[in-house]
Design a protein that fits this description.
The chain is an alpha/beta fold. Helix content is 29%, strand content 25%.
């Protein structure tokens, strides 16, 4: 990022200590209060905010300027777009409840992508779920093509990141993608946790 931009920050949002979806919620609120061309700085400690903020900005038409990382603090910079360039924020239309996903899991093998950060995944994930953080999803698209004709269930902590992931997959030719909208925060089915490199159910 051009260091000159740091002298042109017009608004600052403190999201330190907050996890998804709060950094995005506060970012949206701040952007709505700004004038076109103004720059917003979002300070967050959640590693997931790196992919969340960039994806949100790109999908809504605002200019994502970049992220600086300093000792675990992530500073995201976004320029407010002209009203004519702002895109309506859309949600992925195909969803699944946790209860229904749990039923499918009990019936047999289910394709599940967990798009949370590795640390979140390690603390507890659905058995068999493949860990692909949202920020790495685009790079994984070629390797996921083998699943393009299968039903893919996408999970995250709150249903927010997984919604963005579903849209990315759909745009890349994956026709059967379902967002687990309730997220892992409401999951009461079977779960594995990685402890000291081991997986424990």
């Amino acid at each position: 990022m051009n260091p000159i931009l740091l002298d042109r920050v017009d608004k600052y949002v403190d999201c330190k200590g907050l996890s998804c979806p709060m950094p995005i919620v506060k970012t949206k609120r701040a952007i709505d209060e700004m004038q076109p061309g103004q720059v917003l700085e979002v300070a967050a400690t959640d590693p997931g905010s790196v992919a969340d903020v960039k994806s949100w900005a790109v999908r809504t038409g605002h200019q994502f300027l970049g992220t600086l990382e300093e000792s675990g603090l992530f500073k995201h910079y976004i320029r407010r777009a002209d009203p004519m360039d702002v895109k309506e924020e859309k949600k992925h239309p195909h969803t699944i409840t946790n209860a229904r996903l749990q039923e499918k899991l009990a019936q047999g093998e289910v394709v599940i992508l967990d798009v949370r950060e590795p640390m979140e995944y390690s603390f507890g994930h659905i058995p068999g779920a493949r860990s692909i953080p949202l920020g790495q999803l685009t790079d994984w698209i070629p390797r996921l093509k083998e699943l393009s004709d299968q039903e893919i269930h996408v999970v995250c902590q709150t249903g927010n990141r997984s919604d963005m992931a579903c849209q990315i997959l759909s745009e890349n030719g994956f026709a059967q993608v379902l967002n687990a909208v309730e997220g892992m925060q409401n999951w009461n089915g079977p779960a594995d946790a990685e402890v000291n490199g081991r997986v424990e159910g």
